[in-house]
Each structure stands twice: as structure tokens, then as C-alpha cells.
């Protein structure tokens, strides 16, 4: 897989992870598709980091794995929950 294929894969996995995180977390999140992709990509990094801390696995074990996709979704849920908590604090002032 070349560089373009890797970038497209990251964008698609980011979109899926971000969209699923937005569906799982209740409430209204006013985000564009670009922000949803960014949420998923950041969630992938968070999920990958947590997976490495918990299980000692890294990207050397394979780029696209089911556990990696699940970790991306979990990471995106964590990032979205933190984003909504920080955004909610600022809106109350």
C-alpha cells in the first residue's frame, strides 16, 4: 500500500470511528464531516496509545486490524467526551 492508500485508509477509518463515536455519545454535537474525520483520526491515536499501554501491541503488528478499528472507536468516544465536557464548561459562562 502506497502513501496515497495509507492516507485514504486513515481518512476512511477516521470517518467511521468519528461517526460511530458521535452516534454512541448522546446529545447534539454540531460538527462538520471534516471535524468528524479529525475526531476519528485523533481517536485512533488515543486508542492506539491505550492499546499499546494495555496490551503492548503496536503498528508493527499490522496496520489495519479489527482490534485497531475498535481501539479507534473507543479512542474517538474518549476524545468526544472530553471535547463535550470542555465545550460545555465554556458555554455555561
Automatic annotation (TrEMBL):
Localisation per UniProt entry: Cell membrane
Residues annotated as transmembrane: 6-25, 37-55, 67-86
Annotated membrane topology: Multi-pass membrane protein
The protein's name: GlsB/YeaQ/YmgE family stress response membrane protein
Record's keyword terms, sorted: Cell membrane, Membrane, Transmembrane, Transmembrane helix
Species for this entry: Naasia lichenicola
Chief place of localization: membrane
GO cellular component: plasma membrane
Taxonomy, superkingdom: Bacteria
PANTHER family per record: UPF0410 PROTEIN YMGE
Keyword Transit peptide: no
Similarity section: Belongs to the UPF0410 family.
Amino acid at each position: 500500500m502506497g502513501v496515497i492508500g495509507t492516507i485514504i485508509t486513515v481518512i476512511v477509518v477516521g470517518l467511521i470511528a468519528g461517526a460511530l463515536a458521535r452516534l454512541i455519545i448522546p446529545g447534539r454535537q454540531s460538527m462538520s464531516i471534516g471535524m468528524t474525520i479529525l475526531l476519528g483520526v485523533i481517536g485512533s491515536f488515543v486508542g492506539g496509545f491505550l492499546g499499546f499501554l494495555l496490551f503492548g501491541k503496536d503498528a508493527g503488528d499490522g496496520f489495519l486490524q479489527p482490534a485497531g478499528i475498535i481501539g479507534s472507536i473507543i479512542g474517538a468516544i474518549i476524545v468526544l467526551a472530553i471535547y463535550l465536557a470542555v465545550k460545555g464548561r465554556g458555554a455555561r459562562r
